[in-house]
């Protein structure tokens, strides 16, 4: 009788452990997917920010060049 209850208890413990491992595995999988998604979004944002900075610098260089040309033409007129 005692052996049966111990065996039954062990089986219940194993079932609970399996269920916990399954839930833990699912949580890890969901977390991994969420982190991969967030990393992808951050990488995309970094690329956009780099592109924005590059084109702002191009615009600034163009404005400086046009200003220098205007000063040159104003001094030579």
Automatic annotation (TrEMBL):
The organism's place on the tree of life at top rank: Eukaryota
InterPro entries, alphabetized: CEP95
Cellular component per GO, a single term: spindle pole
Protein name: Coiled-coil domain-containing protein 45
Species for this entry: Magallana gigas (Pacific oyster)
């Amino acid at each position: 009788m005692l052996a049966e209850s111990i065996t039954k208890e062990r089986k219940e413990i194993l079932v609970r452990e399996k269920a916990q491992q399954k839930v833990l595995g699912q949580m890890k999988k969901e977390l991994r997917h969420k982190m991969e998604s967030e990393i992808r979004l951050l990488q995309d944002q970094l690329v956009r920010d780099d592109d924005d900075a590059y084109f702002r610098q191009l615009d600034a260089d163009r404005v400086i060049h046009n200003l220098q040309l205007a000063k040159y033409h104003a001094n030579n007129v």
